[in-house]
């Protein structure tokens, strides 16, 4: 792959280093695209298009692989977008100051996540965990639940089934 045309953003290197991923050009390019989206999630195809647009050819396969790596390393969040062609994964950069007073509410159906900053809530969860010999450690808490959209879908599905029967 060719040299990266812009290298000004030291934060990209720092965040890769922080999770012990080697700053390869593919990882840097993809992170830079995601950094530029102001917390909008993007799917692999859009990242591919955007990179092509600025003259960087990275194969779609590489993009999928790198996104997965960075998600596993805790650098990215994944959510699912419903589209005509089925569910697609979308990625966004984990907010940097995901402080000790925040937790994610995650829909277990569509995996959409919402960041909630609520220090007393997180502290209570921490204490409840400690009582049971568990600790949150350096991880950001995530609590699984179901989003209203998925709840509606489920109810609509059940309603239809009842009427049909
Ligand atoms: Zn959902």
Automatic annotation (TrEMBL):
Gene Ontology biological-process entries: negative regulation of DNA-templated transcription; regulation of secondary metabolite biosynthetic process
Metal-binding among keywords: yes
GO molecular function: DNA-binding transcription factor activity; transcription cis-regulatory region binding; zinc ion binding
Residues annotated as binding Zn(2+): 107, 110, 147, 150
Cofactor(s) required, per the database record: Zn(2+)
Details of cofactor binding: Binds 1 zinc ion per subunit.
Keyword Ribosomal protein (UniProt): no
Protein name according to UniProt: Uncharacterized protein
């Amino acid at each position: 792959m060719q040299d990266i045309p812009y290298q000004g953003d030291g934060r990209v290197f720092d965040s890769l280093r922080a999770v012990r991923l080697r700053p390869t050009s593919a990882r840097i390019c993809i992170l830079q695209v995601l950094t530029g989206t102001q917390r909008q999630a993007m799917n692999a195809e859009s990242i591919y298009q955007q990179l092509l647009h600025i003259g960087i050819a990275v194969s779609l396969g590489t993009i999928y692989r790198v996104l997965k790596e960075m998600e596993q390393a805790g650098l990215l969040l994944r959510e699912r977008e419903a589209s005509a062609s089925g569910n697609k994964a979308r990625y966004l950069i984990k907010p940097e100051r995901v402080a000790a007073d925040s937790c994610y509410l995650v829909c277990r159906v569509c995996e959409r996540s919402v960041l909630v900053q609520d220090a007393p809530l997180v502290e209570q969860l921490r204490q409840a965990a400690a009582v049971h010999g568990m600790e949150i450690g350096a991880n950001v808490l995530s609590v699984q639940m179901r989003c209203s959209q998925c709840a509606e879908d489920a109810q609509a599905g059940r309603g239809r089934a009842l009427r049909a029967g």
